[in-house]
Amino acid sequence: xxxxxxxxxxxxxxxxxxxxxxxxxxxxxxxxxxxxxxxxxxxxxxxxxxxxxxxxxxxxxxxxxxxxxxxxxxxxxxxxxxxxxxxxxxxxxxxxxxxxxxxxxxxxx
Length: 109
Prior knowledge:
Elements: H1 3-15, H2 20-51, H3 53-84, H4 87-108
């Protein structure tokens, strides 16, 4: 940034300066907003607690977690049963035999 741009930037900044009274008013506005938001947050949390919504939500999450756990166990057990029954291996073997037979049929024809 050259010196003329710096002067222009400073001049622009100076035109936006506020008086001490305006600054004090802005601080008061911010304080008022903080009080209002704090009060609203306090009332909201109180209503959530009184309504039982937080407890209900916690119970629903617990039930969903338990259900997910049980489903994962069922899937795991089913996968073990399929593996132990050799169903996949037998199916693969049957497919290989069918492919060989089809290949022999094509060669003969």
